[in-house]
């Protein structure tokens, strides 16, 4: 690739979702000459990012296609926020290439088509809700009607409230709502539901689903695994700056292939294929990728057990298993 496509990313986005040009966005229309099939909206090719001695991203490659709802999962420090910051032009890669809407994420015209909610936001406490929404909307050629936006995010009636007077959950919902103000084609939401109670989380999920159902593309990170299971169609597991797994939630579970075999027993012989053992009173949980073989081995060994249960692992268990294996790619 030539230097001009190396996507130098320099301009910081000072407000969530805000761009800095009045050029019209190419929102929700495929780029001219786009190939058949979903267009790639964001792309990382062999991207590494260092912070001093820390290698936050390690030759990571990932494509996000139009219409996808992608969940980025990974433990603390995996590199999820760094990846989002590269996609939205807040940071530049140490090496490799990042593209947004077919060009540099630093291009203001491209950034007009996206919305962003960073992991942490500090909205001015003395501004009123409607002022912040209008301020962000003013950066975009087209914007969503304020009342409709606030209603969608459960903030109706708070237009005149100062930001400093909002609850933590209301502030977070406002920060997420701001990503949608400019009628974006694609949103990047970094842990959007952090700090929200169950009801607020569910209503935020509804708002995200609504955007997606209308053709919007979503990339979100989450520590809530049930959130990713509930929302995302595609799960990308990131660990130590690499993609460990990339598939549907069902596929990610299958990649780990881990089942939990539980029984009541005083003691068990050594058994083949046991990836992990947990004790909970007299219940023993064995993690295995081949539950059938394990149960056969239990019977062959004439182990004394009762109350046998075999069940699939949660995404969390699958994810921990993948991460523990530290495989470079799935
Ligand atoms: N500005 C920075 N300066 C130095 N190190 C950084 C900086 N930002 C991130 N890192 C380091 O890069 C690595 C990846 O961090 P990143 O925030 O991208 O991970 P994450 O997956 O988003 O984690 P979390 O889930 O905790 O938010 C971590 O080791 C982190 O400490």
Automatic annotation (TrEMBL):
It is a peripheral membrane protein. It is found in: Cell membrane. InterPro entries: AAA+_ATPase, ABC_transporter-like_ATP-bd, ABC_transporter-like_CS, ABC_transporter_ATP-binding, P-loop_NTPase. One of its GO terms (cellular component) is plasma membrane. It comes from the Bacteria. SUPFAM superfamilies: P-loop containing nucleoside triphosphate hydrolases (SSF52540). One of its GO terms (biological process) is response to antibiotic. GO terms for molecular function: ATP binding; ATP hydrolysis activity. Its main location: membrane. The keyword Membrane does not apply. Residues 1-38 are annotated as: Disordered. Keywords: Antibiotic resistance, ATP-binding, Nucleotide-binding, Transport. Residues 42-265 form the ABC transporter domain. This is ABC-2 type transport system ATP-binding protein.
């Amino acid at each position: 690739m030539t230097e001009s496509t190396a996507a130098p990313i320099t301009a910081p986005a000072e407000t969530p979702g805000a761009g800095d040009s009045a050029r019209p966005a190419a929102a929700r229309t495929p780029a001219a000459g786009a190939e058949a099939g979903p267009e790639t909206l964001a792309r990382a090719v062999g991207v590494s990012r260092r912070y001093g001695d820390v290698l936050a991203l390690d030759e990571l490659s990932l494509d996000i296609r139009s219409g996808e709802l992608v969940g980025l999962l990974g433990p603390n420090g995996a590199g999820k926020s760094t990846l989002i910051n590269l996609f939205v032009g807040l940071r530049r890669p140490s090496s490799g290439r990042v593209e947004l809407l077919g060009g540099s994420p630093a291009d203001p015209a491209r950034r007009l088509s996206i919305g962003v909610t960073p992991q942490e936001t500090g909205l001015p406490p003395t501004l009123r809700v409607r002022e912040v929404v209008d301020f962000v909307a003013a950066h975009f050629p087209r914007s969503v009607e304020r009342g409709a936006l606030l209603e969608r995010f459960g903030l109706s009636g708070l237009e005149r409230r100062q930001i400093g007077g909002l609850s933590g959950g209301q502030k977070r919902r406002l920060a997420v709502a701001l990503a949608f103000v400019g009628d974006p084609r694609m949103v990047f939401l970094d842990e959007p539901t952090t700090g929200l109670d169950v009801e607020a989380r569910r209503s935020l999920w509804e708002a995200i689903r609504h955007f997606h159902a209308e053709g919007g593309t979503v990339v979100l990170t989450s520590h809530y695994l049930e959130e990713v299971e509930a929302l995302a169609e595609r799960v990308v597991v990131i660990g130590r700056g690499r993609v460990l797994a990339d598939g549907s939630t069902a596929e990610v579970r299958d990649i780990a292939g881990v089942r939990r075999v539980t029984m009541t027993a005083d003691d068990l012989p050594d058994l083949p294929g046991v990836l992990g053992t947990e004790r909970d009173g007299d219940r023993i949980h064995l993690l295995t990728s081949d539950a059938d073989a394990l149960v056969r081995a239990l019977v062959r060994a004439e182990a004394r057990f009762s109350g046998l249960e075999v069940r699939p692992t949660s995404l969390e268990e699958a994810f921990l298993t993948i991460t523990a294996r530290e495989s470079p790619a799935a």
